[in-house]
Amino acid sequence: MLEIVFSESACGAIKLAQRYGEGKYRGGAIGVVARNADGSAPSAQELARLRREAEARERRVWERVKPLGGQRADVFCFNLALGVGSVAREGFWEHRREALSALWGGWDEEYRKETLDRALQTAQAALETVRERFGGGEALRVWHSAQADEACGLRWLLAALSPWREARGDVLLVGLPAYMEDAEDACVRSFRDWGEVNIEHWGRLAEGQRAVSPRLCAALADEWRAVEAESAPLRALVGGRVRSLPEDAYDPCLRRALAEAPREFPEGRLIGEALGKYALGVGDGWLAMRIEAMVRAGELTVVQNAEAGRPYSRVLRRR
User: Fold this and answer.
1) What does pLDDT average to in each consecutive run of 10 residues of the chain (319 residues)?
2) What does the buried/exposed string (b/e) look like for 81-90 if buried means 16 or more CB atoms within 10 Å of the residue's CB?
3) What is the distance between the alpha carbons of residues 21 and 18, in angstroms, rounded to a whole number?
4) Cα-flanking dihedrals φ and ψ of residue 104, to 5°?
5) Distance (Å) of CA 46 to CA 53, 57, 203, 281, 317
């Protein structure tokens, strides 16, 4: 079965989940980060106790979890940030290069170019392989969510595999639930995308997969063609459908976080507050671009430039 994900984090997690829980528990490196209520560091004995508890938890999880199964070679990742930037069909891959380059603007320029070249070449080769194998009758399982890049990724892929009147493999969709109860930790977990899902949960969540018809695949592909033609700066899932959005769509959330910030603050703090509090469908790169637009407009002033290699470390001041 071909496994499709839309972020590097999800790609790494699903490959680990394929064998997680298989065979005898072998243990591994476990780190513990802890601090006492008064802010002091815990004693060596307390850290040892916490480490033993963490190791016992890992063993219990391993012994009860259901391995996802499958082969690493069957996992394909399209980390293309399809919720951002132009997606016009003509020059599609160059548009992706421009969008990703802008989102990764804080990286070293040479490293960014090398990474972009490799990422786009890998994605293009993966698409051709998926087309060939799926067209030959292999089943396709797509892991998607309401997060913009994953919602757009699902529809883009189905459009790329059109036309749907031809016979080919089965299509299975696994939608990410907004919440999931975790009996081991006695809590309710929330997720925004598959990159946030712990490896022990993938096998369980795969049980929610559903087979979909060529008719539904064609409808989702048509939905993508509509936003593809509009080629807006942003896209998001609105009312269950992918819609085009203006570039300032998330600015109100960013400004609400800004209103609660001190007059001077590190840029990374504002980005983290906006992402954490409002669970936006975009990543830090887009918010950094919008903050830069506010700097150009005079809403924010740069008090201290960023340190080398730390693009979000610059200090800003509210007007």
Assistant:
1) 96 95 82 83 87 86 89 96 95 94 79 86 96 94 96 97 82 93 81 92 94 95 96 93 94 92 92 86 89 92 83 88
2) bbbbbbbeee
3) 9
4) -100, 25
5) 11, 17, 34, 39, 42
